[in-house]
């Protein structure tokens, strides 16, 4: 599992449209790595991979860019193993809003603008207690994409749910404790349910609405079973 500042997902970065963001990255990974900033100007993303245990400073110009996007490790598969995060650039106050398509009530419009300043961000990721190397070998053994995960994480939080009694087979195939079909020749996977906290972000008491940004992350790779 890879972490940024001791956590996964990496910390959410905040800026306002038009800001120049300077980011200092220090890598403790014993391999080359690089951080890719999705959907930002190309000049803000150009860099050679960071050398093992090296560092790199980049400056990102957010002019003309706004909204929620993500950043992730892009040299290896570490992004699928926890090295990813969200970046939110708040739109400039001068940028036209579409809220009058919803209401013309001035009080409601002010409430919407206030809710915009308190937007909530959710990063949703399918998670396996195995690294990507193991998953790639598993996909080659099955000849298909990896489809069985231990948890669905919301902002890095979630629980393990094991196979429930009464669900022993699927289409004639035995299911292991995790609820997955095991390829021939591979051992069954054990499963221990967990009772960790869920992520709870929304509190609508005394509010008529809220803003939410949702980012979905998953590992999808095409695998040639003959290679």
Describe the structure.
This protein is mainly β and 227 residues long. The protein has a domain at 10-126 and 199-217: Cupredoxins -  blue copper proteins (Immunoglobulin-like, Sandwich), CATH 2.60.40. Helix content is 10%, strand content 26%. The protein contains 2 helices and 11 strands, in the order ββββββαβαββββ. The strands form 4 sheets. It has a 4-stranded mixed sheet with strand order 1-6-5-3, with no helix packed on it. A 3-stranded mixed sheet has the order 8-7-11, with no helix packed on it. A two-stranded antiparallel sheet has the order 2-4. Mean pLDDT is 79; it is low at 218-227.
What key phrases describe this protein's structure?
single chain, 227 residues, mainly beta, Immunoglobulin-like, 4-stranded mixed sheet, 3-stranded mixed sheet, 2 helices, 11 strands, globular
